[in-house]
Amino acid sequence: MLTSFSSAEVFAYVVIPLLIFCARICDVTLGTLRVIFISKGIKYLAPAIGFFEVIIWLLAIGQVMNNLTNVVSYIAYGAGFAAGTYVGMFIEEKISIGLVIVRVITRHDATPLIECLRQQNYGVTAIDGEGATGPVKLIFTVVQRQDLFRVIAIIKKFNPRAFYSVEEVRSVAEGVIPVQRSHGLFSWVDSLRFYRK
């Protein structure tokens, strides 16, 4: 036998948990971005994000505390946290802020690869080295993170079997780094970076 829910029950078991879930997605997403911005030295944006993050969190936790007997609110709170973490990482990946250093080690002639990178306006440093199997060429370049896939494609085009590694760069001084090519919503974020001397 079906029973009809009163509007108070719908509000308590559907609307409030949904609001808590959405609020948690927002505040955890902001928190994830804030931590990422701090790690990248973007000191002006992180506090502003933190301000909105904590206000949204207070609204969410306030609703949970007002509905302590509502188990659905707890589930919505936890699910919102998990979803917010995923959304924050997804957004950070899409905005691709910051710099990375790409190191390439190859046993083959690296001249065409170096020339191609330089033609694309990437600063390249190349030195001779000694690997486990003999002489190698070490190539270093610092690029915008949004250009990483383009640089990897160039490496694979000229030497598909080259060893390469990628590492985050917190700050740089001088050097040749191409200007950002993206003009998206977050293309201005790197201008807020705090470059340490």
Task: Please give a structural write-up.
- This protein is α+β, with helices and mostly antiparallel strands.
- The protein folds into two domains: 7-95; 99-179, 2-Layer Sandwich (Alpha-Beta Plaits), CATH 3.30.70.120.
- Helices cover 51% and strands 17% of the residues.
- The chain has five helices and four strands, in the order αααβαββαβ.
- The protein has helices at 7-39, 45-66, 71-95, 111-119, 148-158; strands at residues 99-106, 125-131, 134-144, 163-169.
- Strands 2-3-1-4 form a four-stranded antiparallel sheet, covered by helices on one side.
- A hairpin with a 2-residue loop joins strand 2 and strand 3 (134-144).
- Helix 1 packs antiparallel against helix 2 (45-66).
- The longest helix is centred in the N-terminal third of the chain and has 33 residues, at 7-39.
Q: What strand order characterises the main sheet?
A: 2-3-1-4
Beginning-to-end CA distance, first to last residue: 73 Å
Count of individual domains:
2
Average pLDDT for all residues: 84
List keywords for this structure.
197 residues; four-stranded antiparallel β-sheet; 5 helices; single chain; 2 domains; Alpha-Beta Plaits; alpha+beta; 51% helix
Short note summarizing the structure:
The protein has 197 residues and is an alpha+beta fold. Helix content is 51%, strand content 17%. A 4-stranded antiparallel sheet has the order 2-3-1-4, with helices on one face.
